[in-house]
Amino acid sequence: MRGELRKATGSGGQAAADILTVAVPTGRLFAESVSLLRRVGVLGAAPEAFDPPQERSLVLLAATGRILVVKPADIPVYVEHGAADAGIVGRDVLLEQGRDVYELVDLGFGSCRGVVAVRQGEEDAWPRGRTVRVATKYPRIAARYCERRGWPAEIIALNGAVELAPRVGLADAILDVVVTGRTLRDNLLVEVAEVFRSTARLVVNRASLRTKEAAVRRLIATVEGLKELPADEASGVAGGKPLPPAVRSESRDG
Ligand code: PRP
Question: Has residue 51 got a pLDDT over 70?
Answer without folding.
Answer: no
